[in-house]
Structures are given as C-alpha cells and as structure tokens.
Records
---
Amino acid sequence: ICDGKVASQRLTIAVPTPTDVVVMPPVLTLFAGATSNVVASVVDQFGVVLPGAPIAWASTAQGVATVSSNGLVSAVALGTASIRATSGSLVESVSVSVQNVPVASVAVAPSSATIAQGEMVLLSLTARDSSGQVLGNRPATWSSSSNAIATVTSAGVVEGVAPGTAVVSAV
C-alpha cells in the first residue's frame, strides 16, 4: 500500500523440472594412459542448475576409455569412445579421442657398425617422448641410403652387400 493505493502481482511458482544434462568439455582428446575429469550438471526448464541431481557415468568403449563414478576419464587404448552422463531419462555425451603420445626423439642402436659382406646385424629403435620416457610399441620403417652396399629388412636386420658406406635410417 502506497498513499492508500494497492498494487498486486499474481505469481505462479513453478516446480523445477530437470530438462537437460550439460557436460563439459563436450569433446576430449587424451594421450594413451592419461586421465581427465569431465563435469556434468542437470538443469531445469529455466536453465538453473539443480544441485545434487544424481549423475551416472558410462563408456561406450571401455577398451578405449573408461570413466569412474565421479567423471574421471582414463584413456586406455587408441580409438574413440563416448562417455555418457545420465540423470533419469536425460543423457548427454562427451566424445573422447585417445591418441598416441607424440614421439620427440628416436635413437638407433648400435649407432654405427662395421660388417663384412654377407654378414648381418640387428638394429633396434628406441622412441622417447618430450620428457625422455621410452615409448613402447612404435613401429618403424627402415631404409638404406644404398641397397647396393647394405640392405635392411622391415625388422631392422641389416646385411652387408658390398664394400662401401651406407646410412640405415628408421622413421
């Protein structure tokens, strides 16, 4: 009441109804062996987060990526997976891509060798990441700068063909 005048407003109070699950980030790229958290929220018809709404997590490809009950995604193997956040009948997904850790350096052992014509030597390749950790299971393509002097197989076996010098490389 203001100076004897009355104004009123009719209010309708709506009950919050869960209408969507919002997941962040919507896309995730991980290196094999890494982990990352994803977060999900349930929102109502007004876009307001409903605190305490239950979220269930699941992976469509557990051989590629797993997810814990609190949204911790673990990259298992190369490939893609969808991580699903479910609350009641509401579902939202995160696309997860698992990739190899990049190779920062490679080394061939032995670094040099002298072999006779017809003799063979096995070379090995060690790949490392940027922190110096050895990266396993990285295939290499071997080549010789001169097959007339030395040949190399796909397994890294070098055979001396004729006198001279050749450089054997692995990529």
---
Amino acid sequence: SEHLRAVQEAFALRETIPGGESPPEEARALAPDASGAQALGKMAAELRAIEQVLDAYYRDPTRPQVLASIGASAQVLESSFLALNEVPAAAAFSDCVARIRQFAAPGYSANVRDFEEVAQTLSGLGFFVEALTQGPADFEAIMRPVGAVVAPAEDAPPPTIEAQLARQFKS
C-alpha cells in the first residue's frame, strides 16, 4: 500500500537530520524494500529500543546524555506514524519525545510519575504497532487503560431505570 511504502522510505532515510548529525547506523541500515510487516516490525523494535534507553535513564537519572541517542529513531518513527496516517499515534509519540527531551534538560528533577506515563504510552504504542501488523487497529481502544470506564456514545440511548438502580446499589 502507499502508506506502507512511505514507512519503508522513512526507514530508508539517509539524509542528515537537523542539527548536523547523521542518523545512527541502525536507522540507516533499515532496508527500503522491506515488506509492510517488516517495516511495522522495525517500528516496534525502534519503540522497544527507545523504551530501553528510557529505562537506562530511569535507573540512573544522573546520566541524561543517554537520552540523546533516541533522536534519529524518534524522527523516523514519527514520520512512519504520519505516513501510515496514524495521526493520533504520531501525536502521542511526539508528546513522549517532548517529555523525554524535558528529562534531559538541565535542572530536571527526576519524577517517577513522568517516567511511568511516558513508559506506559511507549508500551501502548508498541502494542498498537503490533496490532497494525494484523490490519487496521483502534488506537484509542489499545491506549485505554485496562478497566477504564468507556464513555457512552452520544447517540446511545439513556440507561434504563433498572441499569441506573443496579449501578446505584453497587456503590
């Protein structure tokens, strides 16, 4: 498909990234003729690699320089999500990258909650990419925490009196 070809091209990116750095060898070595499933597999692997970098920083927040290694992978992944027309996933990923950059900023004070939120989002994105290998995937459903209350659809009929009473007695 056209979207998967765009992802493959993003992984074949060989140009210099902003800031004058060349992408790491791993990002440049990704084959441009990989099948769609392979391209998605590479996206999942890149997400796992970023999670590992974040974990290394979490274990030793005195070394923020380890976070700099995600730059090229982050650009390729964001482009890949956009090429797949997965705008919500791209936005979630961009938010993670922005927060990771904050972790590396001088004077940042390590906050477990921040780490957990970013790690949870990256993990969810990994599940989303894995689901995409099987076909279209529901980003919102995959990213929804287990046990989260799902808001009723606007066009859904109001709950019955019996349902309201049952809910009231459960409380």
---
Amino acid sequence: LLKRIVALFPQTIRMILTGYSNIKSAIDAINLGHAYHYLTKPWDGVLLRKTLDNALEAASLEKEALEIKSALIKAQKIAGVGSWRLDIQENDLKWSDEVYHIFGTEKGNPLTYEDFLSFIHPDDRKFVESRWDAALKGAPYDIEHRILVNNKVKWVRERAELKVENNEMVQ
C-alpha cells in the first residue's frame, strides 16, 4: 500500500502511527525513503506535535530547494552557462542540463574525466590536461578551449574551484 501511495504522491511527507510493537515494517519503510518518521502507541502529544512540525519544516525546505533548483536551471539556460562537478577519487563527472546542451550530448549519460576530454578539440587536449594537472597542484583553473559538437567547433570557457579534504583533492 505504501509503495502505491509513494507512486501516486511522491512529494507527500508520510508518517506512520502504529499500535504494533513490532516496528520492522515501519523501519523498512523509513530506510526505503517511503516514510519520514514513525510513532508507536502510546502516542505522546508533545512528541507527535514536534514530529509534525519537523515534517512540515522538511516539506517546506524540500519545496524551497526544488524552486531554487528550477530557477538555477532556468538561469543557466537563459545565460548559456552550465555547472559541473568532478569527484576526483571516483572519476565521476556530473554536468548540469545546460552543460549537456552546450556539449551536444544526451542528458543523463554517466561521465568521467576521460569522457570530457573526448569532446575537446584534438589541438587543445594537451593544453587542457596540463592546466587541469596544474590545478590539481593548486594553480587556478580558468581556461578557454575548443570542443567538437556534431563536427562543429565551439569555444568554451571553464573555471573550477577545487575542494580539498584532509590534504587531498576531492572535487
């Protein structure tokens, strides 16, 4: 039943109030992301109220995050600017919708740093790789280079701020 409700109303905050002492199914529902919280009998009015308030706050924050994401996507499309994130340790590259559009490729394909390099004009690849290697050692990364999109040359500008954790580049 809960799976059907989730399919019909994915944005709804769901809580489970139960009289059963065996709460395995409630915990499973929470772990699967189908329920926000569960309460068992006897219900404490103060705890129930606090849980409801927290659920409403979570729903409000989720709605706000979706609105901000939508505005960002729209702004990037209007400006013709995209954003990207590379998990260096996992070699997992994430592009915004607009970067997929700029690079003329289908949205959602899993990407790596090597996939990105395959779009770069052959005469610019060594330059891009050398600047990226320098950035990994602390140099700024702010470059312009050519990419090939459907056999046409496009110029792009890239900037990156690398994230360091425990003296190790991670993004």
---
Amino acid sequence: KITLHSGESVYVDKDALVYGCLFAEDAEEIHIFGNGLLDDSSEERIDIGCYEAYTNGNLKFYDCRHLRIEGILCRNSAIWCLNLFHCLDVAADGIKIFGQWRYNTDGVDIVNSSYGMFVKFESRLQKPLHIASAGNVKCNVPQYPAACDGVVSVAGITKDGMLSETSTFGD
C-alpha cells in the first residue's frame, strides 16, 4: 500500500506495473495520472468489511478533497477498483478496468461523496459508465455534468435512506 499525502502527485508511466494500492486519508489536492497499470493481485481479500481499511483494492480514499485521477489501468483488485468514502470534488477520467477474476471486484464504489463528483471508466465487460453527483444545492434544477445524456446521477441520502437535506433532486 502506497499512502499519499496532501499536495502529492503520482505519475504512473505507460510501461509501469505497480503492485499494490494507492491510498489516502484526510488529504487534498492529490493527482494520479499516466497510463500505467495498478495490479492488486497480491492482496488477500478480507471479508470483515470492504468499507474498512482491511482490504484496499487498486485506489482507496477516505475523507479526501480535490482528487484527480486520469488514465490509470486497474487489474486484479481485491475489492472495487476505485473506492471513494466521504470524498469531495473528485474527477476520475479514462480509468480502464480489466482482469477482474475475484467476485465483486469490478468498478467504482462511491459512498457519501459529493461536490463535483465525475467518474468515467472503461471495462471490457460493458460500455463505459459515467457517474456524477446530482449536486448539493437543494433544488430541482439540473446540475452538470450529472444532467448530461448518458450520465448516471447520484444523490445524497441519510442513514434512513431519505434524500439528504442538501442534495439536489429531480429527473
């Protein structure tokens, strides 16, 4: 596991193969870019709870702000490839996911994250999926990029499953 701190950038060269996970907690202004490969095949999946830091996957972030992730390839993750827990202002673009041979290891897991969330990734199993936060302006006015055609818009909810008091809502 490679732990990142505020203000750090990681460039993964197109010919690079990195075994392990890029991880950050309570950090900001992190930029991960390049076209290199992150491989998590050496990590054992621990089923205590995927939301805890027992198992990390390719990219895992808790309470982070202003993340930029571009062009990274993810392979053989122990859990979801990109994990975002209570993160604000995340742009993830051009992430490619393949070689997922363990159960429940595909894709992106976004938990209680918002403000400018935009995620675009590619998988050999499906068409690219685009996910964006509906917004946090508590109104029924379309917010972008969530309102773009082909984008899955996600809203904030309370622990009881009700719409959060600050979440944008609508079609």
